[in-house]
Amino acid sequence: MNINLPSLKGTEKQVAWAEKIRTELLQMIDEEIADELSSPVTVFWAEEGLGAKRDEVLKVARDRIAAQESSAWWIKHKDMNHHNLFYYLVDIYREG
User: Fold this and answer.
1) Which of 15, 68, 75, 84 is most exposed by smallest CB count within 10 Å?
2) What's the rounded Cα separation, in Å, for the pair 86 and 68?
3) CB 20 within 8 A of CB 75
């Protein structure tokens, strides 16, 4: 995990909760990305029109997520899981 994560902003209670969520989510994201990168490009990426950009999408989106400073953002996204992760990553990449 990235040691240089930004300090979270929010109330003391929000920050404590968000730090726990961030640790768990980034671990899950890193594991899922590693698994994805070890596989051929799937139909999901082709359907999203990002087959040739999969590796870039994963890196950019992961970096944008890790850079989030808002405790509220982490709390709002606490239900991100391996079933919906890649949809989140594509959305975050496209918002960029």
Assistant:
1) 84
2) 18
3) no
d(CA 1, CA 66): 9
CA quadruple 86, 88, 93, 94: dihedral positive or negative? positive
DSSP string, 5-60: PPPPBS-HHHHHHHHHHHHHHHHHHHHHHHHHHTSPPPHHHHHTT-GGGHHHHHHH
Rounded to a whole number of angstroms, the CA Rg of the chain reads 14
* Residue-range domain boundaries for the chain: 25-95
Listed in sequence order, the residues at least 6 apart from 37 whose beta carbon sits closer than 8 Å to its beta carbon are 55, 58
Q: What is the pTM of this model?
A: 0.86
What distance in Å separates the CA atoms of residue 9 and residue 82, rounded to the nearest whole number? 26
